[in-house]
Structure formats: C-alpha cells, structure tokens
Amino acid sequence: MLRFVKGLLFASCLLLQQAASATEGMWLPQLLGQLNEKEMKAMGMKISAADIYNVNRGSLKDAIVSFGGFCTGEVISSQGLLLTNHHCGYRSIQQHSSVGSNYLADGFWAMNRQQELPNPGLTATFIVRIEDITKQALAGVQNGMDEKDRAALINKNIEALKPSIKKEAYQDVLVKPMFEGNQYFLFVTQTYKDIRLVGAPPSSIGKFGADTDNWMWPRHTGDFSLFRIYAGKDGLPAEYAADNVPLSPKHFLPISIDGIEKNDFTMVFGFPGRTNEYLPSEGMRLIVEGQDPARVSMRDAALKIIDGFMREDEQIKIQYAAKYASTANGWKKWIGEMQGVERTKGLDRKVAYETEYTKRLNNNNALKQLYAGVLDSLNALYIKAGPYVVAQDYYNELTRNIELFSFSNRLLNMLNKVKKDGPDSYTEHKELLLKTMKGIFQDYSMKVDQQVAVALLDLYFSTVKSRYIGGEAYQIWMENNKDGKMTANKIFALTALSSYEKFEAFLDQPYEKIQNLVYQDPATRFMMALRNGFVENVYNVNKDIQDEIDQLQRVYMKAQMEVMNERRFYPDANSTMRITYGKVDGYSPRDAVQYNISTTLEGVMEKYKPGDYEFDVPGKLRDLYRDKDYGPYKRSDGKMPVCFIASNHTTGGNSGSPALDAYGNLVGLNFDRTWEGTMSDINYDAKICRNIMVDIRYVLFIIDKYAGAKHLVDEMKLVHPKAKVRPMMERKRA
Ligand code: ARG
Ligand code: ASP
Question: Coiled coil where (predicted)?
C-alpha cells in the first residue's frame, strides 16, 4: 500500500515537474504543428505553426540565418539588413580596426552603402527546407550491427539519396543525425558569402560589463551589431563583388517597439550548438564532478596570472583582452553549471528518473526484452571512461593555455605540409606560417606565457596520474626536479619559438636543417612527449570507450522515448535550426533574492566607472541620459529599457537569435544566459534557467539617438501590436 502511494506521489511529481518545465525544449521548426502549436497558443502565441515554418510561402524561418556557422542572425529590412550580437561580429569589427580607426573602442557606422565593409569568409546561411529522411538513411540497418559497418551503410544510403533531392544548383544539402542517431534529417540550405559590416556600437556599450558581468543578471549590455547580406544582381548567392546588391529577402522581421511585460509569450529562433539533455546519471556526474572541476582549476590558475599582468600593464591588457574573454567565458559557465546542478539537485533528479524508467521497463515484457541492462551498462561505461575523460580535459587545457605549445604545433603542421607537397613548397608554406605568427605575436607576451606555464605544469603533473602522462614526458619532468618553474624557465630560455624574430630566424635556415633541428627545440620536444604520452595512454583508450558509449547512448535514447512515452522529446542541440518558447519572467537565484525581468539605463549609470575598461560609459550616452533624450524608444514610465530575461531554453550558438513576440515581431536580441542557469545544457530547470536579451528599443535608441544613423531605423518596419489592445483595456477600466 505504502509503496503504491509512494509510486503515485512520484508519478505526480514527475508530471508536476513536466508542467513547470513547459518551456524546456529546442524544437525542430517543421514539427511545431504536430508537437507544440497547441501549447504555444495556450501560452499566448497569436500566429500559427505555418507562419513560423512554411515551404510554400515566406515564413519566419526565412528571416533567420546561421551567422558564420557560430552564431545566429536575423534579417530586419527589405534590403537585407542583418542583426546579430556585438560579440558575434567582434572578429569582423576587430579586423577592420587599426590604431587610427579603432572601431572596437569607438564604434563604426556606415552612413551610406559605399561605406559598408566586406568580410571575406563570413557567411549567412538560410534554411530552405527540412525533411525527415530517417527511413532512407537507416535502410538495412540491423540491431547489433558493428558500429563501423552501421556508419558506412548509413553514409552510403545518404549519398545514394542526395542526387534525388530537389534543389537549385546554388543550394546545398546537409544531413544531421538527431536523437543520438535514431533519426536523420536533411536540410536544404542557401549560403550568402558577401556579408558587409554596417554598424557596431563602441565596446563600452556593446561589451559593457565585459567579463565581470558575463553570464550575469542584472545585465546592461547593448550586445548588438549590424551587417548586410549582399547578393549577385540576380538575387542569388555570389562571391564578394563591389557591384553586388543588397539581398531582397523572402521575409524580414517587423520590430515591435511596444516593449515587453512580465508573462509575455516569447520565442527564440536560431541555431543552438550543443546540449546533452539525455545523459544517464553517471554521464552527468562525470561532467559536474570530473570535467568541470578539472577545466575550471586549470583556467583558474591561468586566468589569475593573466589578470595580474593585465592590471599592471596597459599593453598586455590590450593584447590579452580577447583571449582572456574567451578563456573566462568557459570557465565561468562551468562554475555556474556545477553550482546549478548542485543547487537544483540535478543528480538526484536524474537518479529518480532512472528509478522510474527502470520500474516501468521491468513491468513491460516487450520493452524489457529489448532494453534490459542498457542503462546499467551505459552508466558503467561512463564510470569506466571517467579517468580518461578527465585526463583528456587536463591535457587539453594544458596545451590550450600554454601558447608556446601551440606554436610548436603550428610549426610541425607546416613541416608536415611540406613533406606532403615536396621541399620546393617550403618557402610558400613558411611565408604563410610567418604571416599567421606575426598576427599571433602581436598579442603575445612571453613573460605572461612563461608564468602561465609554471603554474599549469605544476598543477598538471601534481594532479594527473603519471600513467596518463607517459614515460617520456614524465622523464623530462623529473630531470627538472618535478618543478614547474625550473621546467618552464629552461624551455622558454632555450626555445627558438618565443618571439617573432627568433621564429623567423629559425625558419630562415635551409629546410633540410630545420627538419632535424625542429625536434631538438625544447618546447617542441616537450610538447611532443606530452602529446605522444596523451595519445597512447588516454586518447586511444578513451576513443574505444566513447564508441561504445555512443552506441549505447543511442539505444538508451530510443528506450527512453518508448518507456517514458508520455514525455515529449526534442533532439539535443546540434547546430541545426530550432525554436524555443517561454515567458518573460524573473527568478529567485537564492534565498530571499528575487530578480526583476528588465534593466534600464539607470542601471548602466549605477555601474558607471569613469575610465574603467569594463564599466566606462561614453560621454554621448551620458548626455542622452542626462537629457532623457530617448525619442520614441522609452518605456511608458519614461525610462530607457536595456535588457530583459525570459524562460526560453537556449545555448551557445543562440547568440544573435531574435526574441519574438506572440505575433512574430522582433522584441529582443538573445545574447546570454543567467549564471544560475548555465546548467540548462544538461539539466534544464524552468524555475531558474533564463536567457538574456537586449531590449530591441535599446538597439534602436543607440542606432538613432547615439550613433545618428536614423537612416538605418528608417529601413526597418516598426509596429505597435499592443496599440490595438490598449484602448480596449482602457475602456474596461473606465
Ligand atoms: N556568455 C556569452 C556566450 O557564451 C557571451 C560571451 C561574450 N562576452 C564575453 N565577455 N566573453 O557566448
Ligand atoms: N553567449 C552564448 C552564445 O554566444 C549564448 C549562451 O550560451 O546562452 O551563443
């Protein structure tokens, strides 16, 4: 009896949890009608699934692009104007900058089409059509097939299918596995290659708060930049040409300047990169108890040293700003992930879920025959993989954060290319490498790298067991008294790779000589010893376990879908187009603390620190604030909105994604998540997981009032969806 009641209680807990997390999920746009439309409408959506994804007419999806393959962007005018984040456009903005015209520091605004700046290599990819090709891809695949044979057969099936796919010559076909390889989807895409920079605010707006505020709420960052998609005269994708024309898109997003309120329905449309929502408990444990602590400890040590130098030395501050930001971005996210899983008892919830799964499986003979033991074996495999996975993380962090090792790597790669192309190609390959190295050394300080090496070598060798390091590297470590300082000092003193001048002099020797000399360089020798030891003792062993994990994870995924069949499943993010929806809502990060939904320019001024590299505020913006010169973009209370949060389920790659209102109008620009909720990649919890967006009114205000680029706002279509509603409400009140 008691057990029965307990079971009921558990089942209702599960259901409750499901209702509460109605906003979990990154859904495939072509399946919304089938899976989500009803719920989306119940939550407030006023359009239909067919308005979001439609192959017969222009729909919302035709305004969304994968921006360069690493971010999302959206078309916001009939002339191909593209909106994305400042941190997504960062590299382009940097590449156009010089000491004389520093667009990162001062911002950049093209006042006419001629001033828009081309960015070779940058792309914008539209999704033309999505098809489920699971049947064709998996034809002939048998249970228990050898993994290599399975992969080869699927590959063959897909290649055989491709010629029959209807598409234009200028379009591409991309196939992606979903649900760990239980399903396959095909994407017909159209990629534009002439993408020009149109506008960017200064970093003191676009990156306001920088690393201190990164992953944090309350946030006050105007994280946006503008580009324009250019096409050939026929409107089709074309390589850059001065006389290309602005794209006339199938659809562009109207912009609502009515603002957002608590509980408003929002959806975020974009290209999320990677999530792991269906791990077994030991897989999740490995991340939060093994991998995250390992990666965080290595980066912690590196960041402390770099920060120390940056605070003392103006030049180092400039040289290391971007590197520091990217190292700190992962570091901070992983800390949030560990803490979030712990605070929400994510592991306990996984274990409870597995208990329920196992109980149901055992009560169903047909399913039991298929899946008995799968979960236990999978958990056991994660335990077995654990030490190797963690050792791999330590190794990756060691070689990533000591830059000198990456110089050795580049040198060896270059020599390999010469080996392949013949000795005559040496000069050409050498020049190419020197060009790259010139750029790298511009932002390099040997004394910083050397100190980082001292700290990371000590940490690496004292933490990672010698059997994962290998004899040769350990030998070198022992020759140096097992001392990071001694090891690093020797290497940095004797290497020929630690400055551009030395590097160039080294490569100026005859190729035959270099071929031998390269292995005598202490940096390269040590790096190779570390790498060989790692490949033999960690990588190769782990790879075999990971193959087994992949296979069982696929079976476990299928089993979950059949056993927990009331649950609605969405495939893990894999850089394909997805839509997620939720509500504008605050949250409580800890006892007695409650966060509001939005921030204003008042908050920017509260954080303002004159001259600070994270919290300075440009004079012009301070003037606009003083005069409350906000134009039509202010809130009804007269304040200038800056950012807001909602319960949309997003991840890396969703940066630059549009936040849309119930009608599909643009209301915000996604750029981050809150720290307490970064665990959403493995453990989404609707109570505290929030995505962070720039309020679109702040974007327009900066373009119009701050930059004086009103002509860009004039290109857009501003709408007032709430105006219709307001008089009615006022009538009611009267
Ligand atoms: N945390 C955001 C994302 O994961 C923004 C990163 C850019 N900003 C920074 N300060 N690093 O990409
Ligand atoms: N900041 C991330 C990005 O660049 C978004 C996120 O992780 O929430 O894609």
Answer: 535-562
Are both 495 and 620 inside the same structural domain? no
Q: Which residue among 86, 87, 220, 649 is the active-site one?
A: 87
Query: Cα(651)–Cα(671) distance, rounded to whole angstroms?
Result: 10
> Using CA atoms, how far apart are residues 340 and 619, in angstroms rounded to an integer?
38
DSSP designation for 119: -
**Taking a C-beta distance cutoff of 8 angstroms, is the pair 130, 186 a contact?**
yes
Please indicate, yes or no, if residue 124 is contained in any of the structural domains.
Answer: no
Q: Is residue 212 part of a domain?
A: no
Q: Which atom of ligand 2 is nearest to the CA of 71?
A: 9
CA distance 459 to 300: 11
* Structural domain boundaries enclosing 441: 281-560
Distance of CA 420 to the CA centre of its chain: 35
Do 396 and 539 fall into the same domain?
yes
User: Is the bond into 618 cis (omega within 30 degrees of 0)?
Assistant: no
Measured CA to CA, the distance from residue 308 to residue 475 in angstroms comes to 32
- Ligand 2 centroid to Cα of residue 94, in Å, is 20
Do residues 535 and 589 both lie within one domain? no
Q: How many helices (H) and strands (E) does the chain have?
A: 31, 20
Question: Is 0.85 topped by the overall pTM?
Answer: yes
Query: What are the average pLDDT values for consecutive 10-residue runs of the chain, which has 734 residues?
Result: 43 43 88 96 97 96 98 98 97 86 94 98 98 98 90 97 97 98 98 98 97 97 98 98 98 97 97 98 98 98 97 88 92 98 97 98 97 98 98 98 97 97 96 96 96 98 96 95 98 97 97 94 97 98 96 97 95 98 96 97 98 95 98 97 98 98 98 97 96 98 98 98 63 43
